[in-house]
UniProtKB/TrEMBL annotation:
It comes from Vibrio syngnathi. Pfam families: N_methyl. It comes from the Bacteria. The chain crosses the membrane at residues 7-28. This is Major pilin subunit. Keywords: Membrane, Transmembrane, Transmembrane helix. The keyword Metal-binding does not apply. Coiled coil: none annotated. NCBIfam families: IV_pilin_GFxxxE (TIGR02532).
Length: 180
């Protein structure tokens, strides 16, 4: 009498494991590339939104008759004050040096005031990493704001960065590895 076997043979099981291993080796790098692409697209979308918000603010400043730096423009959350040239430079406090300079905390405040987004921002402080927030803001004395997108990136990698110059309204997007 012939016995009926249930299940798979050892050769069939080994074949399936080898095929799954090959699929994993080829699929994982593609999946990781999709994740990086999605983070880059999110950064680019957020940076484009910031550029649009700055341009809309400047347009509102022109419509309002180009008010001085000590008068807020009716755009964004809170009192957003213009630079001497009509681009947003300070939030909820008067700009310094007649609207020609920026405080360290102004960059993060500008992001929050101008952007209607779930992407949260924090001041740079001592280091970019680790960061619970996807956007880290910093300023320079020239004056300009840097916004690093950190979500999905690690220390030492080049990060997408938006550079905002409130005296000219110029916005550039680059990528670099922050010093800390």
């Amino acid at each position: 009498m012939k016995q009926h076997q249930n299940g798979f043979t050892l050769i069939e099981l080994v074949s399936v494991v080898v095929i799954l291993g090959i699929l994993t080796v080829t699929a994982v790098p593609r999946f990781l590339n999709y994740q990086r692409d999605s983070h880059e697209a999110t950064a680019q979308g957020a940076f484009s939104s910031f550029r649009t918000a700055v341009n809309l603010y400047h347009s509102q400043w022109l419509v309002d008759g180009e008010p001085d730096f000590n008068q807020d423009v009716d755009y964004g959350e809170g009192s957003v004050y213009p630079s001497s040239t009509g681009f947003p430079i300070a939030v909820d406090q008067l700009p310094i040096n007649s609207g020609t300079a920026i405080r360290g905390s102004d960059c993060a405040r500008l992001w929050r005031a101008l952007m209607n987004t779930d992407l949260t921002v924090r001041d740079h402080g001592r280091s970019v990493f680790p960061s619970e927030e996807p956007i880290v803001a910093w300023y320079t004395s020239d004056p300009s704001c840097y916004y690093y997108y950190t979500d999905g990136y690690s220390l030492g990698e080049d990060l997408p960065r938006l550079n905002y110059f409130p005296l000219t309204g110029e916005i550039t997007v680059t990528s670099d590895s922050p010093s800390s």
